[in-house]
Specification:
- There is one protein chain.
- The protein is mostly beta strands and 432 residues long.
- The chain has one domain: Porin.
- Helix content is 9%, strand content 51%.
- It has an 18-stranded antiparallel beta barrel.
- The chain is globular, with a radius of gyration of 23 Å.
- The N terminus is likely disordered.
Length: 432
């Protein structure tokens, strides 16, 4: 383990030095170029997962390093390789060990554009994938947080014209990274998702001014484990983004209907969100945008043989909250498993300075069903009130960061005497 630790540390230092030398040599884009980023975060997990002020607190720093290379021999081809690592230095509890964790391939793909001079693109390999706002697909390995979110995938896109395109996709994501070499794999922090899974998608996007439209079909197949059953989820959905007259107001809405199987039980579920945005920046100083909206993801009714709980598929990320995902984990046993949850919300965006912005949001959360576990023994369906705020700053082209704060007041969905929690994170990032 000591040898692996030193190897990992030495490799990252060498890669950083090489990347800096490459960047210093030239300021212009060349067929071959190197990339580097370092992200530092301070994270505390405690009250958010227990709703108990007296629960043990875990505090650690996260140091995420990416080093990669692009090669563009022509406009038709792009090759990319990127290594990643996230080391964790634990501050509390004192018994927690420092985790250097593995060095892994975060990206490794070839992108072939305009195949045979036709409007067809093909990208094969390990890559990041996000459709629209990521409601159905954005994170291929949710158990490692934001260390990585890649998919092992083949993605083909046919462009009917500049405003219409159809994407076909196949993905395969193992429980642990078995497809590419990993350095220092013996560390404890390497499970990517609870179950190995594969899947496919058809995604159509059209710009039909003043409407942007997406329509899709997703399929995800979960492999059986010793503790979890095999399952499959099909999803049919659509998204619209409508610019209302004057272009100051935008209405965004997405809806998905799910069907499938969990072992021998049928799944019937649905979810979506709607939001009205008002771009008020040209009328007021500082304030840029106001928004109101709602979110709905169906919950399972334990009195029926059908599973009505919404399956977030590849949407297990921190879109609505950074802290509440740990409360969900205590409830579901899975991190960021957005299901049996609805909200009404309102928020705003503001520019505090030329390079400083503020995003704030309020969500009133509730559930469709109360499973009646010890954690959710309050007997009601009101999850509580969640307040979030983030100050983001861009120091220069290379340095950026943010300060993120959340406060949650639990409702009668949770056990009697459940405590509120405050969640704070500081981030600083450097990019070449």
């Amino acid at each position: 383990m000591k040898t692996n630790y030193l190897l990992a540390l030495g490799l990252l230092v060498c890669l950083h030095g090489t990347a800096k030398a490459q960047t210093d040599d030239t300021a212009e884009q060349k067929p071959f170029r190197l990339t580097f980023s370092e992200r530092a975060r301070m994270t505390t997990i405690g009250e958010a997962s227990t709703l108990d002020h007296y629960a043990p607190i875990t505090t650690f720093t996260r140091w995420r390093t990416y080093f990669g290379a692009y090669y563009n021999p022509s406009r038709h081809f792009e090759f990319r390789a990127e290594l990643g690592n996230e080391a964790r230095l634990y501050l509390t509890p004192p018994t927690a060990k420092t985790a250097v964790n593995e060095i892994f391939f975060n990206q490794l793909y070839v992108d072939w554009r305009d195949i045979a001079d036709l409007p067809i693109d093909l990208c094969v390999g390990r890559q990041n994938i996000k459709f629209d706002e990521g409601f159905m697909m954005v994170d291929g390995n949710p158990m490692v947080g934001s260390r990585s979110d890649y998919f092992n995938a083949a993605k083909a896109t046919f462009r009917f014209d500049e405003r219409n395109r159809l994407t076909a996709l196949f993905v395969y994501n193992p429980h642990r990274d078995k497809l590419l070499p990993v350095i220092n794999e013996g560390d404890h922090y390497k499970s990517l998702e609870e179950q190995t899974n594969n899947g496919a998608a058809l995604y159509y996007q059209a710009q039909l001014s003043p409407v942007d439209l997406s329509a899709y079909y997703f399929y995800k197949n979960y492999f059986k484990t010793a503790t979890l059953p095999d399952a499959e989820t099909h999803a049919l959905g659509a998204r619209v983004n409508v610019a209302l007259p004057g272009n100051d107001f935008h209405f965004i809405s997405e809806f998905a209907y799910e069907f499938g199987k969990v072992a021998d039980r049928n799944r019937r579920a649905w979810g979506g969100y709607s939001r009205l945005e008002y771009n008020i920046g040209r009328y007021l100083y500082v304030l840029d945008q106001l928004s109101v909206g709602s979110v709905y993801m169906s919950g399972d009714d334990p009195t029926t043989p059908t599973i009505e709980g919404f399956d977030p598929m590849w949407n297990r990320w921190t879109r609505w909250s950074e802290g509440y995902i740990y409360t969900l984990a205590a409830e579901t046993g899975k991190i960021s498993y957005w299901s049996n949850l609805a909200s009404i919300n309102a928020g705003f965006k503001a520019s505090l300075a030329p390079n400083v912005s503020l995003n704030a949001n309020y969500m009133h959360l509730f559930a469709m069903h109360n499973p009646g576990t010890a954690f959710t023994s309050g007997g009601g369906k009101t999850r509580g009130d969640l307040y979030t705020a983030r100050i983001s700053y861009q120091i220069n082209p290379h340095w950026s960061g943010h300060l993120h704060y959340e406060h949650f007041n639990p409702g009668n969905y949770y056990f009697r005497g459940a405590d509120n929690f405050n969640w704070v994170r500081f981030e600083l990032m450097y990019k070449l």
